Amino acid sequence: MAIIQQIIFLAVLGTVGWLVFKRASLIRNTILLGRDEDRTDQPGLRFATMVRIAFGQKKMFDRPLIGVMHFVVYAGFLLINIEVLEIVLDGILGHHRLFAPFLGSFYTFLIGFFEFLAVGVLVTCSIFLIRRAVVKVERFQPSRHKEMNGWPELDGKIILLFEIVLMIAILTMNAADTVLQEIGSTHYTPTGDFAFSQFLKPLFTGWNETSLIVYERFAWWFHILGIFAFAVYVTYSKHLHIALAFPNTYFSRLTPKGEMNNMPDITKEVKIMLGLDTPDTTAAENVIPERFGAKDAPDLSWKNLMDAYSCTECGRCTSACPANLTGKKLSPRKIMMDTRDRLEDIGRNMQTNGGKFVEDGKNLMGDYISNEEILACTTCNACVQECPILINPLDIILQLRRYKIMDEAQAPGSWNAMFQNLDTNQAPWKFSPGDRFNWADHLKNEA
Ligand code: HEM
Ligand code: SF4
Ligand code: SF4
């Protein structure tokens, strides 16, 4: 019997490993479709940023209550994984509580501590769920935010329910296990009562040994299969952030937020126009760029694409966006979600075409994101400031806008007048630079 369990376990482990590997490779390949951008400078500062923002959860505490609740889930996840390691080894080797004989009473303490975390995760995820389903926090509501309709809304709830059920399984499994130890069932290594599950033992009063073993095994398999399913599921979910938050903060932008990326070709043109540079005669430097800005996801940089996969869909950016708050169609969260959706479509396309993308006649700009949305952006950087994992929706908006205006020449009329003024008057207004201080003339007269 034990050997059959071991074989089934190994088969499941192998299948899950293969599925996760395949999916992770596809995500990596779609991210690498993005334009090259060097984010390897200042490794020390990058590492410190990752430690502060991802490991230390610094920006999560901008909203202290959510920060503390999320910290419980986050720390619980990281530490409970030590127990999962034991469960996986038990499954492979056909043992039960492999570490118990080596660690003695410390083992009982450790599992008790994990139970304490499990209860924390259970309570916190329940509150998160209530916040979404009962209290109906505004930034998650599909009625107010179109991008939360359908899968994103469901995804947010599924993952929380999933974690709650997994925690219940582990606590009741421990309780059934200790009851089995008490009745002297062979195979159940004596460990003594654990911190929380001891209070669940009354649930199993009157159960005979067989029923207890069946339940304990059921909960064991349910828990580990649940974790395996979770590992595959997160790669399709906003919960991919549990892995990508770390590299995403490491590779985040180190320059000040207000500093916009210049377009070197355009900067040069302007400098030549102002007599600050001379035209190049070498052919290589005179190559006209294939496209200004970004029309589709692969025109964005790989970091923009990693941002899209890392987004938790929390909506903090949207809740701070002045355009969104004043009823415009723009939502920075939607920009990130659309970019991810486009990448997912490209990924599926590549999968069905032997790893190569076959033109599908669609583009990020136009088919997923509309002109109206990107034109509403004030470039205020509030979304960038708000994001707890250092995602930059503005960078994507700017590149899409540059494409619309410079490549397709589709700026609104009023913007074109402003560009014209900048060109001729070095200011957005219609007045000549010489008239710029006319407004102060009356002060001179008064003096
Ligand atoms: C590694 C283990 C992690 C786990 C298990 C985890 C779990 C969760 C869960 C369950 C939620 C859902 C809350 C909800 O939407 O109702 C969530 C949201 C979130 N997580 Fe994580 N997370 C982890 C790591 C991180 C890291 C490293 C960061 C980076 C700072 C992060 C940032 C966020 C953000 C910004 C949200 C949205 C919070 C909100 O709704 O305001 N998470 N996480
Ligand atoms: S930069 Fe644009 S998208 Fe971001 S908050 Fe400001 S207006 Fe909204
Ligand atoms: S971009 Fe950042 S702030 Fe906005 S929804 Fe995604 S994770 Fe939240």
Strand content: under 5%
Helix amount, in percent?
55-70%
Please state the structural category: mainly alpha
> How confident overall, as mean pLDDT?
91
Q: What's the Cα radius of gyration?
A: 28 Å
How would you portray this structure in words?
The chain is mainly alpha-helical and 447 residues long. The chain has 2 domains: 2-31 and 63-250; 264-429, Fumarate Reductase Iron-sulfur Protein, Chain B, domain 2 (Orthogonal Bundle), CATH 1.10.1060. Helices cover 61% and strands 0% of the residues. The chain contains 19 helices and no strands. Helix 1 runs parallel beside helix 7. The N and C termini lie far apart (102 Å). The mean pLDDT is 91. One iron/sulfur cluster (SF4) is lined by residues 320-323, 330, 332, 377-383, 393-394, 397. The site of one iron/sulfur cluster has 16 residues, from helix 12, helix 16 and helix 17.
Give the gist of this structure:
The protein has 447 residues and is mainly α.
Descriptors for this entry?
447 residues, mainly alpha, elongated, binds protoporphyrin IX containing FE, binds iron/sulfur cluster
Topology:
Elements: H1 2-31, H2 43-55, H3 64-93, H4 100-103, H5 105-133, H6 151-182, H7 209-233, H8 241-250, H9 264-273, H10 302-310, H11 316-320, H12 322-325, H13 332-352, H14 364-368, H15 371-375, H16 382-386, H17 393-407, H18 413-425, H19 441-446
This protein binds protoporphyrin IX containing FE (HEM) and iron/sulfur cluster (SF4) (2 copies).
